[in-house]
Amino acid sequence: MRANMSYALYQARGGRITCGFDGYTTTRGRHEGIDIARGVGSDVHALVGGKIIYIARGHTGRSGLSTISIYNASLRKTVIYLHSAPRSSLRVGQMVGRGQVIADESWNGVSSRSTAHTHVEMRLGSRTHAAKSVGDPHLDNPNPGRFWNSQGYNVR
Prior knowledge:
By secondary structure, the chain is mainly beta. The protein has one domain (3-132): Glucose Permease (Domain IIA) (Distorted Sandwich). The protein is 8% helix and 31% strand. The chain has helices at residues 5-10, 145-150, and strands spanning 3-4, 16-19, 34-37, 43-45, 50-56, 67-72, 77-82, 85-86, 95-96, 101-104, 118-124, 153-154. It has a 7-stranded antiparallel β-sheet, with no helix packed on it. A 3-stranded antiparallel β-sheet has the order 4-10-8. A two-stranded parallel ribbon has the order 1-12. The longest helix is centred in the first third of the chain and has 6 residues, at 5-10. The protein is globular.
């Protein structure tokens, strides 16, 4: 039986998907991940275990994008989390387990508290940065639905 991805990301009561893969409706470009919101300060859990290969500790507001990139060598995929505030204990090179708390929901790199969410993106291979979305008409990532299903998640 699969768990809802939004529940696995936040646990407790879960969250809600605010923008699906390639789901932009009012923003130019192709959305390369899945945006899930719960509330500022909520614990964000790793959906897939692996090695942290990149961390950027942003700050709230439009210019402070934060990033956590976790590479799973056996899957040959990287899961990238944007906008959330990485926990201070996280370090590049550290191994994290599925379900481990890695961040707090925030609005790092988006315009306001009311738009707080976690962007979750699956990338092929070892990649430190998310694909460009805003203003980019091309998709770099494949639709991740099959990948998330293989990991035991329903994308909801």
